[in-house]
Each structure stands twice: as C-alpha cells, then as structure tokens.
Amino acid sequence: MSTPVLQVEGLAYAYPDGHQALFGVDLHVHQGERVALLGPNGAGKTTLVLHLNGILEAGAGSVSVSGLPVTKGNVREIRRRVGVVFQDPDDQLFMPTVRDDVAFGPANLGLRGAELDTAVHAALEQVGMVEFIDRPPHHLSFGQRRRVAVATVLAMQPEILVLDEPSSNLDPASRRELADILRGLEVTVLMVTHDLPYALELCPRSVVLSDGVIVADGTTYDVLTDDTLMSAHRLELPFGFDPRSMRGLAGR
C-alpha cells in the first residue's frame, strides 16, 4: 500500500498540569480516505487533532504528513497541508467580507492578483458560496458560515481536511447540504464527531479513541454495530437509529 498521507507513531502527550491525554497513539490515514474519529468527551480527540498541524508538540512519538515530520521548523508547510475547520466558524472568520476571509491564507502564502482571485473563487465554488463572496460573514446563517470556514481551508489546497464536529448546531437542511459538499471533495478527510449517523453516512472507516488510546479501528458499520464496544466507550446512537438499516448507504 502507498505511504500514508498521515502517519502517527507512538504519540504520547501530557499537559503541563501533568494530565496524560495520549498514550502511544498509532494512526495511519491514506490519501483520499474519509475517516471518523470517535470517542467520549475527554478521550483525547482534540489533543490528537492539535498535534496534526503543530499546535501541540509531541511529548513522545511522531506525526508526519506525506513524509514531512510535524516539527517547529516545518510548521508553516504543515499548516498548509493540514487544514483544520473548527467547531465554531466564528473562531475562523474574522475579516470584513467572505472574500477577505477565504483570501487570508493563500495571501499569506504569497498568492496575489488573478492567482489569488482564482483560489478564492475555486474554494467558494466547492462549498456553493460564490454568490456570497462580498457579504460580511456575520450576515450569514450559521450553516453558511460553516461552509465559508471550510472554504478558508480549501483555499490553501490542503492534503488533509480535519473537521471538528462539522454537523453540530446545523438544521437538517444545512446538515444534508454540508454532507453533500464533503462527499464531493477530493481531499483526505479526518472528521471528529459525536454525530454517529453522520459518521456512518460520510466515513467508511472509523477510529475510536478512549482514555488516550485507540481501542477500535475498522469500518464505521462494524464499529457502530459492536454493542459491547459502543457501551464500553460511552458511544450511543440516537434513539431509533439502526445502522443495520443503512448498510447499503454507509460511507458512500
């Protein structure tokens, strides 16, 4: 098999207060995969994500993206390769217009003029938000702001798109629209979510992190139908939702 686009080897991390959040995590994600990262609150999911683009530095072990180690010296290129979309789009959008927000990252990479305009339009096209290019982000709905937040990352042409709870606070229509967008992207996706039906719909593979270690890595269908695993790690399906009824649709 080809070299993983994301390679995490023996990753361990303790916060300054002594709390050990990760204990030797191994994770490999290959180009084009869509992988859900599941687990209860406090499992270490956010800590893991913060290592992927150099916000946190590994206490032990290593992280690399397409063979490039995540180190302080490489952090600028790593943050181009690994784009993180935060749970709250207002943490990501801070410029006067949608155009300015989406242009911010590519402009920092040195893009100017027509090349920058092309990158901005292409990213907004991918999320269906071109018509809002001159609108102030705070005039948009929550779902629209989340799509613009995704565009700010896509404009950097990342190799990996990391999404933190992408379906949270979305109404059903916005949730479906975002799923359609994510399904159509030609980029490797790592999706951190508590929304298990969304994981089943979008991600053929799921990894379960619990108490700082990976306790399961398999098809999302197999993970969600393993009642013992689900119960042991505080993962609960919505009332009335049965993954078995969606087997043919999972992770398309």
Automatic annotation (TrEMBL):
Xref: SUPFAM superfamilies: P-loop containing nucleoside triphosphate hydrolases (SSF52540)
GO biological process terms, semicolon-separated: cobalt ion transport
One MF annotation (Gene Ontology) recorded for this entry: ATPase-coupled transmembrane transporter activity
Location within or outside the cell: Cell membrane
Record's keyword terms, sorted: ATP-binding, Cell membrane, Membrane, Nucleotide-binding, Translocase, Transport
Gene3D superfamilies: P-loop containing nucleotide triphosphate hydrolases (3.40.50.300)
Lipid biosynthesis among keywords: no
SMART domains on file: AAA (SM00382)
Main function: Part of an ABC transporter complex. Responsible for energy coupling to the transport system. Probably part of an ABC transporter complex. Responsible for energy coupling to the transport system.
Family that this chain belongs to: Belongs to the ABC transporter superfamily.
Protein name: ABC transporter ATP-binding protein
